[in-house]
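SAMPLE LOG
Freezer: B-3
Tube label: C17
Construct: single chain, 160 aa
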Amino acid sequence: MPRIEPAHIEGDALQSSLLARVMGRCPDVLRAFGRLDNTLRFRGTLPMSLLESVRRVTAGEVGCEYCASLGTPRTEYTDQREAVATAFAQLVATDPAGISDGQFNVLREEFTDEEIVELVAYICFISIGGQMFGAVMGLEAADADEADAYQAALASHAHS
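STRUCTURE (predicted):
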């Protein structure tokens, strides 16, 4: 059980997730969080599949059981951009102040400056705003139905 009793929220798997229901105890925070999540995840230039890979790889590093339960990270990537983005995300999640210029420059080999800003904003948002929130609040792993609904909701956004 989370450290804070979740609010009752209607909506799809993303709108009524455990994270959203706990954050929903403070509706203004939930709305602002949701707007930023929607902007970064669904309206940016980076593919949602890349962003989801980044989310998955950072969840375990940050320690949010709930976030980690929504999908396991891949061990291999066929897409070079996705491989670079997930490796960089792991570095940020484990030691954000320790990112070297050389490590950052690897991003420049695959991404434009605008894409780097978008990627770093997303990494920081999900790892601090979502995953760290989940870890501090003690959010337990999602059950299989909620994890499946989360994946279905992402899939429906990918095709819209």
